[in-house]
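re: ur question from the group chat, yeah i did fold both. here u go
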Amino acid sequence: MLWSDPADEPTEELRSAQAMLRRAGPLLAVAMLVVFLLLL
């Protein structure tokens, strides 16, 4: 990050949510692509 503030660490909940989003991102994109191709 551009600013360093060690006192403002992201919570465990936020970290796990970000990890889940990173995993679900590509999966969601593939799912949307499949649905799009099925609708054509």
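okk and heres the other one u asked abt
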Amino acid sequence: MLISSLGWDFAEESSFMQSELPFRYSIKPQIGSPLTVHSTALSGETPCAHGRNGEFYYDSGSCPLKIFKCVKYLFGAGLHPKCLFNTHAARRVLSRAFSKRAGYSELFNTYYAPFEKLSFFSSSRKTDILSANGLSPARNLRDVLEASGLNFHILQKSGFNAETLREATDIISSGSDFTFLYIGGSPENSTRASSCAKSISKRLEICGDFAGNIVKTLKSKYHGDWSFTLFSDFGVLPSKVLFDAAAVLKKLPLKFGFDFLYFIEPDMLRFWYPNHSAASIVRKAFGDCADMGFFLSDLDKEENGINSLFGDDVFVVNDGVQLSPSWISKKPLEAVRGYSTSASNAFLLSSKKPSFVPTRTSDIFKLMKSDIDSICRSNSDSI
């Protein structure tokens, strides 16, 4: 089971599900948006292979989102933040209409990216990452499960509610060989319930009750022949400092779309440079903001499988810092991921000792693949 925005430190400090899940590991998260992290967890590949380079990435060719440039002429929608077309509801309607017309995933969302700037980008939400070939050319979890011939189920839900629990336990009781459950939310709201120690403790309690009921169902149905693994994407930390990166960008003697492009997220700022000379100007401006964040090194990019589609330069925040305003959230989030320490590490907790010690997000898929292969061998031996 995958859950969003809960980290290793809080899980360990509270002894979260210690008795039920005694095999416990701190996981260094994939760098990137929740979509990027989840894609790596579901394929075992980095962005270079699975192609989910954040919610959006610079597309110098087809620019499939260029139609949104027209929206700014509707009563100045792209120019006035308080215009009707910049409300959350209106943007969701526009996003759904576009996704249906373009054949994109229903999770496609423009969030609060300026319409005239969005026209330079492509979306990573062209497909559902949990669908068949959803991370093509990389294989995802569903691809592996369909090839295995196992009786499997994949559920994607938005909360720890009674209906989701009932559906999950019914599937387990029906004799499913392998069940994957993702409990998450959008990048904008997934951290709102994780803003401080008290609320995180409450969320852990709710998650623990939910997962505990699944464990009880497994025990009663399968006795000793079962395993349950719970893992998160990354941890979040309370936002203590808001950094207005947009104000710094406005002062640069550079033209968006010609000299450089950028995409502002709450925890990172990604740059592309059509004019290569713009790089030194950007690096100087944000290099002077070392108390707010830092640029990823070439080694960081290599270890995380990040290429120029993700960004020519990537500025990530220090722990406790948030980029606000951003193009993902209109209002500051209460908590975001940090990058200066290991405080945002994810966790993997299991009822049984895994086949190897996981350390990175990509290892999650490899462990699931190992479990699938083991179940296949066991089913074959029992025939």
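fwiw on the second one: Residues 2-48+129-235+349-382 form a domain with the Alkaline Phosphatase, subunit A fold (CATH 3.40.720.10). The chain has twelve helices and 16 strands. idk if thats what u expected
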